[in-house]
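A favour, since you know our structure tokens better than I do. Go ahead and set the record down below.
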Amino acid sequence: MASFTLPTINDNADGGWGPSSSNLPPNFKFKEIPYAPYSKSDKLGRFADWNDISGDNRQMTFGPASSQGPQRGGMSGRGRRDGQPAFGSGTASAFAYFHAEDESSFSLVDTKTAATRRGGPLGRGRGGGRGGAGYAARGGAQRGGRGGFYGGRGGGQRGGRRGWRDWEKNNRVREASVAISPEWSMLEEIEFHRLAKLRLEVDEPEDLGTYGRLFPYDKSYDRVTTRSEKPLQLVDRIKYNTTTSDDPVIHELAAKETATVYTTDVILAGLMCATRSVNPWDIVIVREGNKLFFDKRDGGPFDTVTVNENASDPPQDPATVNPNNPNEKIAVPEAPTINSATSLSLEATYINQNFGFQSVIETPPPPAVELEKPNPFYGPDETEPLASCGYRYRVFDLGITEDEDIKLCVRTEVDAYSAGQGNPRQGQGLVTIRALNEFDPRAPGAGGALDWRTKLDSQRGAVVATEMKNNSCKLAKWTVQSVLAGADTMKIGYISRVNPRDNTRHVILSTQSVRPTDFANQLNVSLANGWGIVRTVTDLCMKQPEGKYVLVKDPNKPVIRLYAVPMNAFTGEDDDDDVPFDGEDTELAA
């Protein structure tokens, strides 16, 4: 019978499992190195498992780890389905690799060709999944202006195939609204993101006087639909667009030291909505003593109406090759096409004026209302009839503290009054009239606009959302002008061409009534921010000595700059501010 000899047992006097380190040979080369598996074939087992502990019921399992051991996702979190621990689960950190260097500046260039698939970022409207982040109702942010605000079915922005083949589009470089002379000295430069942070709360204004005559608004235009459209007529009326320095009433008020700043609602609204502007503009500022006069240049950007200024692909004038540099393209001053930026601006101005002339009742009843004083710009030798227009001169207090005496006098305009809604002589029932125009939904620069004839009655919300997106600056300025004038209602007409290829004949498809204060909230227009911009520009100009200055919006950057210019600057231009607009444009009527 074979003998059986027990192996040598090294008693661990220090306590714990396994042999004591004191029993190892003195020259043992692996003494300080912990054990770690070097092959996936190694199976690590447990002689005793103390992991299965629940409250005071402590259970010790002997033998190889089995199904009784910790399961996948158990306390150890690293078990396997066969009960064996995962390979390397007991590996000591001595053999682990830790990378301590900073590789934040390292980037890998992916040279693989991206797979094109439907529904990607440039897809047809399901990027990121239906109902994903940034989506409203059934789809993405905006499909032709419907998503996000009213909820559309498309993702991203389908209108006008925004973002499609942008790399093939020429870099658009706009020309400044006024040529910057080398003699001018730049005094200040302010970015739009700084202007957007300004705030100033202004109290209700003080009325100084009313001038002109108002006709009642024709409410039959509120019932116009695409099925009962009305033609836009050419109405021969006079409406003045006089700048601040040529206003005789402002001259009288300035002589009485009524305010510190004097301006008109068109100029003031443009400054208050400066952060929304994309096209270039400029304001001429004259300081005389402690008074500032904000003026516009005749024929400048404040005399016309923009079209789709805020669209991602706005209308533009065609470019031609510079004869001195064949590689450079320059804008043509007079655009030959009817859908160019210049032609559309003239067309929109023509439409706005004639829609305001046409949508009032000149034959009583109800009668016209004569305001406190007659029209200050209508001379005794004038024979043509005046348009319905009322001027309200108002003073706003821009002082931050009670001791500050900084007031702004502004000439505001209203176009009509609403019969039966109060006395217009007391500022009740006043109406401003504006018009949006459709030229060709399929033309470049349309901004993804819907076809008004088929969508205006059934999907008015989508049409409005598209216009709010493409004409954010224009609508904001109209709204601010209405609020400054104290109008109760703003009428917005929707006017389209009879034929998309003819810009001389138009029809009225519908009219919308909005309250200016409510519409300002929908447009996210902050009057406090606008007043903060006005106060900042006023402070900058009051720090300068007496003289002439010009505030210029950079044509290609969201920046405004203040220049000091000679006193004879802009005096060489034809001074015909007092020439009235007779409702007809020679280019459109040709």
In short: Residues 186-589 form one domain. The longest strand covers residues 502-514. Residues 341-358 form the longest helix (18 residues).
